[in-house]
Design goal:
Na+/H+ antiporter like fold, globular
Length: about 425
């Protein structure tokens, strides 16, 4: 009966993915909120009997499904960002300044804050560090309401005025891959013991080496595939001329596969590949077609995962949740991430003219959406070190994701409308 139920849930997710975005457009309600709520309601009926919901028994399946969702989202985010990043030009790096601040300051502070909180509430050092690592990165999957809409094409000049959405989009595209070193740190702490036995390997390889390898692999794959798609001698290979948008899926799978084969971080490889592919023929309409495919597939996969998550919530996923797990989730959403974000984006001197005004900085600090990536990282770590996949961590992460879905989902539209209106009046 399990296969039939999976088809049923997938079909319901597809129908809702088609209908909900337009139906909820004028309301402060997001599609993820509705899907989680529907899933919770379904969980109280006999209908989901037989679905593989236990994260301990179905860890591998959870890992691979969430992995696919993140990969599709990263490809879409990389194609959507209009602002180029030329690794050889310092001026180009400076135009991404808000992104680097969130990645270099807010993310480590969030990891440290949650890890210390978890350790103080009774988790082991390895479990506390893993909790910080899985909950620190913002999510490219559930953050569509606060991200850029999609690639601009044609001969229009690229609009770089929406610094807030660019900041949140680029941060989400990069920090999922950059969370991996800290997940590995938790795995090494659980499996190899004290810090002195592995810190040098972690620093040189897991923190630096695998990041560099992943980015280089993505750039190389992006350049090769872009050269084929846009400039190949054979017309049959110039898929951009035919508008073959499924190239987006072939590109992300190839980039991820090569990134993993050469032992880099595959998530970074996919994002770097998408950015590099976009850099070739930047104004070409083909990018919009590819982005549309990834966006629709991401929407379908996301709603499927959230529907199943909602069912699992009412089928025992929160059994191990206690006041400590609730405290971690609430403090992360309302205190740790906002404070870390404000510290990262604060002007460094009274003379600095930051690209974000005070209201935009507050929004960028607050809208650190948690989502599918946190579930993936926990499933991955539990596969590498089973002692890290305890029910308490699953319950805490699931509660935090759902809290983020409802809080950020309800506030995203009204807050961004107010900020956009203020920016229009200022202009």
């Amino acid at each position: 009966m399990t296969a039939e139920l999976v088809y049923l849930v997938a079909g319901a997710s597809l129908l809702l993915a088609i209908v909900l975005p337009a139906a909820l457009d004028r309301w402060a309600v997001s599609a993820p909120m509705v899907l989680v709520g529907v899933g919770i309601g379904l969980g109280f009926t006999p209908l989901p009997d037989g679905l593989p919901l236990d994260p301990q028994e179905n860890r591998a399946g959870i890992e691979h499904v969430t992995e696919l969702v993140i990969l599709v989202a990263l490809m879409g985010v990389g194609l959507a960002i209009d602002r180029p990043l030329d690794l050889r030009r310092p001026a180009s790096w400076r135009r991404w300044g808000t992104t680097w601040r969130l990645l270099g300051v807010a993310m480590p502070l969030s990891i440290a804050g949650i890890a210390l909180l978890g350790w103080g509430l009774g988790l082991s050092a390895a479990s506390a560090l893993l909790l910080g690592a899985v909950l620190a990165p913002t999510d490219p999957v559930l953050a569509s309401d606060v991200q850029v809409a999609g690639p601009q094409t044609g001969d229009l000049e690229v609009d770089e005025s929406d610094e807030l959405r660019f900041t949140l989009t680029s941060e989400a595209g990069l920090n999922d891959g950059l969370a991996f070193p800290f997940v590995y740190a938790a795995i090494l702490l659980a499996t190899k013991g004290t810090l002195g036995e592995w810190w040098a390997t972690w620093l040189s390889w897991y923190l630096v080496g695998k990041v560099v390898v992943g980015v280089v692999a993505g750039v190389v794959v992006g350049r090769v595939l872009a050269a084929v798609a846009f400039r190949a001698h054979s017309p049959s290979l110039r898929v951009a001329e035919r508008g073959e948008s499924l190239m987006a899926l072939a590109t992300l799978v190839t980039a991820y596969g090569i990134g993993e084969v050469v032992h880099g971080y595959g998530f970074l490889a996919v994002f770097a590949c998408a950015m590099t592919f976009r850099a070739a023929e930047r104004s070409h309409a083909y990018h919009a077609a590819m982005h549309e495919v990834t966006e629709r597939l991401e929407r379908l996969l996301t709603l499927f995962v959230l529907l199943v998550l909602g069912i699992a919530l009412s089928r025992g996923l929160l059994t191990a949740l206690d006041w400590r797990g609730v405290l971690v989730g609430v403090l992360l959403v309302f205190v740790v991430r906002p404070v870390a974000g404000m510290l990262a984006l604060a002007p460094r001197s009274s003379r600095e003219r930051p690209p974000l005004d005070r209201g935009q900085r507050r929004a960028a600090a607050f809208f650190g959406v948690r989502g599918i990536g946190s579930i993936y990282y926990l499933a991955y770590a539990a596969g590498e070190a089973p002692e890290l996949g305890v029910d308490r961590l699953w319950s805490t992460v699931a509660f935090t994701v759902v809290l983020s879905v409802f809080v950020h989902g309800a506030l995203a539209s009204p807050v961004l409308r107010r900020i956009d209106a203020a920016a229009s009046r200022s202009a």
